[in-house]
Design a protein that fits this description.
- With 145 residues, the chain is an alpha+beta fold.
- It is built from four helices and six strands, in the order ααββαββαββ.
- It has a six-stranded antiparallel sheet with strand order 1-2-4-5-6-3.
- The two termini are 26 Å apart.
- The model has no long low-confidence stretch (mean pLDDT 94).
Length: 145
């Protein structure tokens, strides 16, 4: 099961927003949200909450791809997130997530008995390529007790 399939199966909001996983690797996750009138804002573009969910889902996909082999001993959790809406988003939007620290460094902290935190950065783009939003999500791997 890919990281995208896993998220779609376990996170209902992924299915609700009809998110499409275009690429999911330990280095990059790309997710598209189709243009859906039910999730528009007052100016006809995707609602800020839908874009937040898209970006957070992209961050989760890369975390699962990068750390899926650690799930038997730790659960990934989003700790905090910050998003900036840069330009008006219209139509379909795509979120691209990248890991902010080397995965091996994070796993080494987990091996040392720590609860590592690490950033994932996400860019949200319109179909014309313009960046409409940027998000940083701080994730942790919480060891099972």
């Amino acid at each position: 099961m890919t990281a995208g399939e896993m998220l779609a199966a376990t996170v209902p909001m992924v299915r609700t927003l009809n998110l499409e996983f275009l690429e999911t690797t330990a280095d990059r996750a790309v997710i598209r949200m189709p243009d859906q009138p039910d999730y528009h804002n007052h100016v006809g573009g995707p609602h800020a909450g839908a874009m937040f969910t898209l970006a957070e889902s992209a961050s989760g996909a890369i975390v699962i791809a990068a750390f899926g082999d650690q799930l038997s001993r730790a659960v990934p959790l989003a700790v905090r997130a910050e998003i900036g809406y840069k330009k008006l988003a219209m139509g379909e939007v795509t979120a691209t997530a990248t890991l902010g620290r080397p995965a091996a460094e994070v796993v080494a902290e987990l091996d040392a008995g720590e609860r590592p935190e690490f950033p994932v950065t996400v860019e949200i783009r319109r179909a014309d390529g313009a960046v409409t939003g940027e998000m940083t999500v701080i994730w942790t791997l919480r060891p099972h007790s």
